[in-house]
Amino acid sequence: MHILVVNDDGPPSKRLSPYIHPFVSALQDAGHLVSVAIPAASRSWIGKAHLIEASLKATYVPPDAFRNDGTWDEHHNSSETKQPQSEWVVIRNGTPASCVQLGLFNLFNDRPPVDLVISGPNHGRNASTVYNLSSGTVGGALEAATCSKRAIAISFGSKDPQPDEIIRAAARHAVKVVNYLYEHWHDSVELYNLNVPMRKDVESRPVRWTEALPYYWPRGCMYAEAAGEQKMVNGHTETNGEAVNGTSGSHLKEIDFTWAAELSEMKKTLQSSPEGTDAHTVLNGDTSVTALRANFWHVPNLEGPIDLDG
């Protein structure tokens, strides 16, 4: 099977993207042809967005040229790579969705058609509706589904450093689940969201069908005000609204915000989630498989003319 792998965590990195290298190796060990197209930087929380004003540059990088900090050796001699067709593609200004588009239609035309798109493994779980709608990992799978490709989003359920033994076990287990889902694909399913717990005995634990836990933000908890930083506003370089380099400051009110997700309330909700949901399942040590369709479907039974004066 020819599998396209994308992610939202970017190139291999001990801190941000520790799971993709072992997972790709596990897919190859299972006999699959694997093509990899990943963004050059972390794109977490980006959903299935495209950066339409950004130019994309695809760089073919041998897997052994990657360092463990998200960078790679640009002077690596690709002729030293032992396995044919083993280069990964890193896409500057890429997102999971653009990696899917380029991976399916532009980058690997010398290979057979892609049978399955896998987005992940994400560094941390993606359980509940709010994650499904925000996650770049799920977004990559959604993009593949809109391209009429079978797709699976995979998340390894921990952001804490993990021993190599546990990572390899999770990778082997995920590949086994992927093989099963592909061979038993349900006609009504467009993508699966797979959450794998990070534990030594994961391969002997149950795999369960689950529902997505409904979740809504109870308050503004994603951004926080930040101290002013030097920036361009209307063509002028300014800091905290004061004049810089002889240029008069802006008289318009400005507030700077930085990403500062405060997820304590969400974590409490996930920990108390009911049995049968994705969050409850993975938090209790089992593998969660949620079958999804890639659409915002209309609410039924609302039809006919609307009387605005009634």
Mean pLDDT: 91
Number of helices: 7
Looking at the overall shape, the CATH architecture is 3-Layer(aba) Sandwich
Q: Largest beta sheet: what is the strand line-up?
A: 3-4-2-1-5-6-7-13-8
Q: Please state roughly what percent of the residues sit in beta strands, choosing from under 5%, 5-15%, 15-25%, 25-35%, 35-45% or over 45%.
A: 15-25%
Helix content: 10-25%
Rg = 22 Å
Distance between the termini: 58 Å
Unreliable residue runs: 233-241
User: What structural class do helix, strand and pairing data support?
Assistant: alpha/beta
SSE run? EHEEEHEHHEHEEEEEEHHE
How many strands, what sense, and barrel or not for the largest sheet?
9 strands, mixed
- Which descriptor suits the 3D outline? globular
Q: In CATH terms, what is the fold-level topology? A: Stationary-phase Survival Protein Sure Homolog, Chain: A
The total of beta strands comes to 13
Overall structural domain count: 1
* CATH homology group: Survival protein SurE-like phosphatase/nucleotidase
User: What is the CATH class?
Assistant: Alpha Beta
